[in-house]
């Protein structure tokens, strides 16, 4: 009996010890589980933060790519408009050149036929042959041939960088013709000479006079677009918008490349003004890009965009035309082309002043 009691006591003591050990192990397991849970949650938070930062970075890259894509699309649209404008101008210029050549050939043939009659009607006065005065048609044909030769000489001077000499030649053609396509082209090239001589204020006056004198001429759209470009370079937004709006309001320009470009640039200006009104930072000016068709007058090669102004051009600046604002009445002042500069142009145009009988024979 005594042994049984001792055995029961020993068993209870063993059971109590096992229970304590089990409790200790359970607490250890709970502590380990808590540590593991804390570590997992910490790693999870770090991973979420990294993924969030990567997501923000990818979103910024995506926004940048979208902005670049929009800019590339805008550039592509402008290039397409310039290509379309150049293609149209090349076609129109080709047609005008063909028509002009046919007209010149016809008038030369007419002069050739008339010259035989003039030579047959010559009378001898004091031992010298005196030609009978030509009629109005012959005079007009001779005047056109002489003006064409002088215009081509001035254009060659321009492409050689002799802007002052070219200005003088174009002015002489304008004063001789006054009206018509050749007069309009001469006034346009005079303004180009002033631009390349860095006389932008006087170029603006000549362009404005050209637009007023030839409101439906072949250079009207290009002239107003060039004026918008000059004012955009000066950051005169109101004048830039005014000339862009004139292009859009002109029926003459409705089918031109300048019309498409003017619409895009004006829209861009208005969008920037809205952003500025909303307090967003925007560029002060919107550039009016002038395409390669700017110098397409009379089939000429494009003029250099940044040609250096010659030393003589500085004197031209001080004597530029005040009368250029009214080209239909008078040409720009002669002081802009001294006699020393104009002499070569006059000399090169001299053959057109010879008797019409000899010119066709050559």
Per-chain topology:
Blueprint: H1 2-120, E1 123-125, E2 128-130, H2 136-159, H3 163-177, H4 181-196, H5 200-213, H6 220-233, H7 237-249, H8 257-277, H9 313-318, H10 339-348, H11 358-361
Antiparallel strand pairs: 1-2
Describe the structure.
Helices cover 71% and strands 2% of the residues. Helix 2 packs antiparallel against helix 3 (163-177), helix 3 (163-177) packs antiparallel against helix 4 (181-196) and helix 6 packs antiparallel against helix 7. The radius of gyration is 42 Å and the shape is rod-shaped. The protein has a two-stranded antiparallel ribbon with strand order 1-2. The chain has helices at 2-120, 136-159, 163-177, 181-196, 200-213, 220-233, 237-249, 257-277, 313-318, 339-348, 358-361, and strands spanning 123-125, 128-130.
Beta-strand content bin: under 5%
Major sheet size, sense and barrel closure: 2 strands, antiparallel
How is the largest sheet built, in terms of strand order? Answer: 1-2
Count all strands and give the number.
2
Low-confidence stretches: 121-130, 291-362
Distance between the termini: 158 Å
- Helical content (DSSP H or I, runs of 4+): over 70%
What is the CATH homology-level superfamily? Tetratricopeptide repeat domain
Mean pLDDT: 73
Structural class: mainly alpha
User: Please, how many helices?
Assistant: 11
**What does the overall shape look like?**
rod-shaped
Number of domains: 1
CATH architecture label name = Alpha Horseshoe
Q: What is the CATH topology descriptor?
A: Serine Threonine Protein Phosphatase 5, Tetratricopeptide repeat
């Amino acid at each position: 009996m005594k042994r049984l009691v001792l055995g029961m006591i020993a068993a209870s003591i063993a059971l109590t010890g096992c229970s304590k050990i089990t409790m200790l192990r359970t607490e250890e397991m709970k502590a380990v589980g808590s540590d593991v849970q804390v570590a997992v949650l910490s790693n999870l938070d770090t991973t979420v933060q990294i993924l969030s930062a990567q997501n923000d970075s990818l979103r910024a890259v995506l926004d940048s790519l979208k902005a670049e894509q929009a800019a590339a699309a805008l550039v592509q649209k402008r290039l397409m408009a310039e290509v379309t404008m150049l293609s149209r101008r090349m076609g129109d210029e080709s047609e005008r050149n063909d028509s002009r050549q046919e007209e010149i050939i016809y008038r030369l043939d007419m002069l050739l036929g008339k010259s035989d009659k003039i030579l047959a009607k010559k009378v001898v006065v004091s031992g010298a042959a005196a030609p009978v005065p030509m009629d109005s048609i012959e005079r007009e044909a001779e005047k056109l041939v002489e003006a064409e030769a002088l215009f081509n000489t001035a254009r060659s001077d321009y492409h050689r960088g002799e802007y002052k000499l070219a200005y003088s030649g174009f002015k002489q053609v304008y004063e001789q013709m006054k009206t018509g396509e050749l007069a309009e082209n001469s006034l346009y090239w005079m303004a180009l000479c002033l631009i390349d001589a860095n006389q932008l204020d006087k170029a603006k006056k000549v362009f404005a006079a050209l637009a007023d004198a030839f409101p439906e001429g072949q250079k009207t759209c290009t002239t107003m677009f060039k004026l918008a470009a000059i004012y955009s370079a000066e950051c005169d937004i109101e004048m830039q918008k005014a000339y862009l709006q004139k292009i859009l309001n002109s029926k003459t320009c409705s089918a031109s490349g300048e019309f498409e470009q003017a619409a895009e640039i004006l829209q861009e200006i208005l969008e920037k003004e809205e952003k500025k009104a909303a307090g967003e930072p925007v560029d002060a000016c919107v550039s009016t890009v002038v395409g390669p068709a700017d110098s397409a007058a009379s089939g000429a090669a494009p003029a250099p965009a940044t040609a250096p102004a010659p030393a003589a051009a500085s004197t031209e600046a001080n004597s530029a035309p005040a009368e250029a604002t009214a080209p239909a009445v008078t040409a720009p002042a002669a002081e802009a082309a001294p006699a020393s500069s104009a002499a070569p142009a006059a000399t090169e145009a001299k053959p057109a002043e010879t008797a019409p009988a000899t010119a066709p024979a050559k």
